[in-house]
Specification:
The complex is a heterodimer of chains A (332) and B (425). With 332 residues, chain A is of the alpha/beta class. Chain A contains twelve helices and nine strands. The chains are: A alpha/beta (332), B alpha/beta (425).
């Protein structure tokens, strides 16, 4: 069974959302369009739609996270689902219970969906392969492999500002090697037909075979930013100084930090994205992070709509045999 | 002692270039004659081997029965029984047991348990350094006297080159062959081949240079110290190329490959399939093809199962947390026959890689059907096809990536020292 097959049902609909890789442009566009219809829910007085009433969604976080977990929780609650948050770092696996035993127990409590975050690549696939057939799995980030909802909220944000993807030049800057966000962004951008994708960073932080992903590898920040429409910054993990990937944060900021000078090489209306949390003064200067071209906080808001869209598409599938999720926008 | 005649079989004995239908006569645990019956020979048992191949029992260069130390994964008794059902009559165990085989007591224990089990023969490799730590030399002389046929540091590469050099020198003075897992420890911290596949999966890769740098360095040390050396389980095209070159230059080096490296590539692990987590990792198609042609040419004189049985939990975890290895003794022969078919090798050449080839590497007198030798014999149907179902495996380890594969070649009888240890006696 290939990586692709497992996340689609026999009608080609999204059954799990584990990775962007291998999905069709149609499915990605559906996610973005559905998210668009959910985007206004948060602005209403009653921030809820009853789409997933009676469903139970479990946030299974084996790795700590505030933003991702919170936005998943909010997304589920706005869809009227019941939400269970399990922080596994402090839970049963530390008592020696195996991951599979824990899954069996949660299944016995009749959960409908697991949102999984884990520090091991492939963990979400592993869980998807082992859960009962009625349960869906959404990958909230696995190791260095994938973070598909993050990539989709980035695409959503870019599309809202820039329209269609086919004319866009996009730069992804930083630690590509260890970034699940970058991997998912690259797949999403190429599936959605971005004109050019550049990855920018030192050789130590870019996979050797990166060009096979259909990206241009650039080691000079200024050259790489030249004429781009969107700059996708990545968070630099502090532990990268350990494995001889980088000499120091200071040098990294000198060479790859985004500040107003370096951003000047991009198009004048270029937007700046960052998945958070930000290391100010390491990968990005505060004046850029808080500046007019930054859409970093919008990303957080958009994250809720995109996660609602994914949950609704995945769980809304079985409910009705109409196949499509009814979008609240369509009723208005 | 029983007298046995194996009648009408196609005898393939690579060491003696035999490849024809002959009768094989066994008496007192030895091969008594091939061809016509010695005067007055009366058989207690007649094995009808018509349409079957009769060859020397297979010698598997690398098998971890998991005993002592990890009996929940396998025992000497369980894995030897599995091995003989796959036609293997001798298996060679690396020293990374628990406790480490760095003292004669551990060697004695392993050999004693094998004797008790009474199926396959076991030969052992002793530790090259104490507790395999790569710091102090193990008592290689004592291990040799206890029966170890060579020394190795198993998959714990020695980082200190002075220790490595001394270990080679010391082994050379005892006439012991060193068995090397060529891997630079600092470069080999991943769990899959480093390539576009590892980049895509977000898994830390083991680059090709982890192996090639170690091989090139070790070749210099082999030349420098004059030790006889064997490279275990090569996985890359360039490493085999270097070994071929060294052999051409007259260096006393041999090498083997694990049979799964002749069939699988990194792509088979590309859906996080933990059954394909092996060490060294599965490499590219180019590497696999180079390994195959090196088996054909003989640069790789042995093909082994690299048998590593696991309990289910070892593989039921995310990829990088899973334990490497495949339960392989029962698929060694059919997977070798598949390579033979694919490359149009003669059966004799293919079987040499699991009989005379490994026998020579281990310095054993077995691996042949020569008159007077131990009657370690494998009798198999070369045409029988069967589907691999992991639940049917006799090994305690059901971990195999070959589930559902069509296998050709089924062992019918296995004899060790003239005793039927597998088949209907």
């Amino acid at each position: 069974m290939s990586v692709r097959d497992i996340q689609l049902d026999d009608k080609g609909r999204l059954r799990h959302f584990l990775t962007v890789e291998g999905l069709s442009r149609q499915i990605l566009t559906d996610i973005l369009d559905t998210a668009e219809s959910f985007a206004t829910v948060g602005e209403q007085a009653v921030k809820k739609v009853p789409l997933l009433r009676g469903k139970t969604i479990t946030n299974l976080f084996f790795e700590s996270s505030t933003r991702t977990r919170t936005t998943f929780e909010l997304a589920a609650k706005r869809l009227s689902a019941d939400v269970l948050n399990i922080n596994v770092a402090t839970s049963s696996t530390s008592k020696g219970e195996s991951m599979l035993d824990m899954l069996r127990n949660l299944e016995a409590m009749h959960c409908d969906m697991f949102v999984v975050r884990h520090n091991r690549s492939g963990a979400a696939h592993f869980i998807a392969r082992h859960v009962a057939p009625h349960i869906s799995v959404i990958n909230g980030g696995d190791g260095c492999h994938a973070h598909p909802t993050q990539a989709m909220l980035d695409m959503f944000t870019i599309r809202r500002h820039k329209g269609e993807f086919n004319k866009l030049k996009v730069a992804i800057v930083g630690d590509i090697l260890h970034s699940r966000v970058a991997r998912s962004q690259i797949h999403a951008l190429s599936i959605l037909g971005a004109h050019e994708i550049r990855v920018i960073g030192p050789k130590t932080l870019i996979p050797r075979d990166a060009s096979t992903f259909g990206v241009h590898v650039v080691h000079d920040l200024r050259a790489g930013l030249s004429d781009v429409d969107a700059v996708l910054m990545l968070r630099l993990q502090r532990e990268r100084m350990e494995g001889a990937f980088l000499p120091s944060e200071h040098e990294y900021f000198q060479l790859y930090g985004l500040n107003e000078d370096t951003l000047a090489h991009a198009k004048p209306d270029a937007i700046v994205l960052h998945p958070g949390p930000i290391n100010r003064g390491v990968e990005i200067d505060s004046r850029v992070a808080d500046g007019a071209r930054s859409v970093i906080l919008e990303q957080v808001t958009n994250g809720i709509a995109v996660r609602m869209a994914v949950m609704a598409m995945v769980l809304g599938r079985g409910n009705a045999d109409e196949g499509e999720v009814r979008r609240p926008g369509a009723e208005r | 002692m029983k007298r046995i005649v194996i009648a009408g079989g196609h005898v393939v004995d690579p060491a003696n270039s035999t490849d024809e239908v002959r009768d094989v006569f066994v008496s007192d645990g030895k091969i008594l004659a091939i061809g016509s019956a010695p005067a007055g020979f009366e058989a207690d048992l007649v094995i009808d081997a018509q349409r079957l191949v009769v060859c020397p029992g297979l010698i598997d260069l690398r098998v971890r029965p998991r005993e002592p130390g990890q009996e929940h994964k396998g025992t000497i008794a369980s894995e030897c029984a599995a091995a003989v059902s796959g036609g293997i009559t001798t298996l060679c165990c690396p020293p990374d047991t628990d406790p480490i085989n760095d003292t004669p007591a551990v060697t004695d224990l392993i050999l004693h348990r094998a004797n008790e089990a009474g199926t396959a023969r076991i030969v052992t490799l002793g530790a090259m350094t104490r507790e395999l730590r790569g710091e102090k030399l193990a008592e290689m002389g004592a291990l040799q006297r206890a029966g170890c046929v060579g020394v190795s540091n198993a998959q714990r590469p020695i980082a200190d080159l002075t220790v490595l050099r001394r270990a080679f020198e010391y082994a050379a003075s005892l006439g012991l062959r060193v068995f090397i897992h060529a891997e630079d420890p600092a470069l080999a911290k991943g769990c899959i081949n480093e390539s576009a596949v590892s980049a895509r999966l977000g898994l830390t890769g083991v680059p090709e240079i982890a192996e090639t740098i170690a091989v090139s360095r070790d070749l210099l040390l082999i030349q420098h110290t004059g030790v006889s050396a064997h490279f275990c389980g090569l996985s890359t095209a360039r490493a085999v190329q270097m070994v071929a070159r060294a052999q051409y230059d007259g260096l006393p080096v041999t090498a083997d490959v694990a049979v799964h490296h002749l069939h699988l590539t990194e792509m088979d692990a590309a859906d996080f399939n933990t059954q394909c987590h092996v060490r060294p990792p599965l490499r590219t198609t180019r590497d696999r093809d180079a390994l195959r042609s090196s088996v054909q040419r003989g640069t790789l004189a042995a093909v082994c199962s690299d048998h590593q049985p696991h309990d289910p939990d070892a593989k039921e975890v995310p990829f990088s947390e899973s334990e490497p290895g495949i339960s392989g003794v029962e698929t060694l022969l059919p997977l070798l026959l598949r390579v033979q078919t694919d490359l149009r090798m003669t059966l004799r050449d293919a079987l040499a890689r699991v009989t005379s080839g490994p026998a020579q590497i281990l310095g054993l007198s077995s691996g042949t059907l020569g008159v007077g030798r131990d009657a370690d014999i494998c009798i198999f149907d070369p045409n029988e096809s069967w589907m691999l179902d992991p639940n049917q495996l006799k090994s305690r380890g059901r971990n195999t990536p070959f589930s559902g594969w069509e296998m050709r070649g089924r062992v019918r009888w296995t004899l060790v020292g003239g005793k039927v240890v597998y088949g209907k006696a």
